[in-house]
Every structure is written in structure tokens, then in C-alpha cells.
Amino acid sequence: MKKLFYPALFHKAEEGGFWISFPDIPECLTQGEDMEQAYEMAVDALGLALTCREKEQQPFPDVSDPTMITPEPDSFLVVIEFDMLAYKKRTGSRAVKKTLSIPEWLNEAAVAMDLNFSQILQEALIAKIQS
To answer: How many domains does the chain have?
Structure first.
């Protein structure tokens, strides 16, 4: 999956920092104490919202044209870059056991070379997903 770019509105909070909303994903809200933290929190909130939609087999919302969004006073528009694969790597690292079959000769050759089967499978799957 390629990177996604969703517009977000950064609203200045009365107590300082920002609260963030997404015009295309109304349920997606977050906050941060400064610009850096607000952006990081926006990426995480977007990731949570999109992965929930993915698990529920709901389509991702269409992305609004940022030039068509007019921020309210005391707010400004920021386009959030989101990489689903990177997000899943960072947040979904729970190991899942898989049983598979390979030819005996291949197993013997790999064991003789002291290869790590899990690592090789992970690398091959990542390469396949990214292609």
C-alpha cells in the first residue's frame, strides 16, 4: 500500500497546544502540546481510524482537496502523510505462529547453513508486499 495524505485541521487550544480534526474522518480527533507532538498524534490517530475501518472491511474515505477546505479562525490546515505498512510495523509487532511445508532437501540445506527461517520468511513477505 502506498502512502496516504489526509488533510487535518490544527486548532489552537485555549490551554496551549493544538487539537486536531480530520474533515474526511469526523470520528478522528486528537491533541498535542506543541506542533511536533500534535503532528505525531495526528499520524497515530489517523492510523488507528484507518486500521479500524480496514478491520471492519469499510472503505477508506476519499481524500478532500486541501485547497477546498477553509480553516476556521485560530486553525490551519496540515496535510498528514500516512504510511500504513510502517504504521503496522510499529504498532502490530505481535508474533503470529504459522505452520508451513517446504521440501526436505530445502530444509536440510537451510539448517546446514544455520539460516533463520522466521527472519527469511518475514523479509520475503515484506518484499512481496512492498512490490
So the answer is: 2
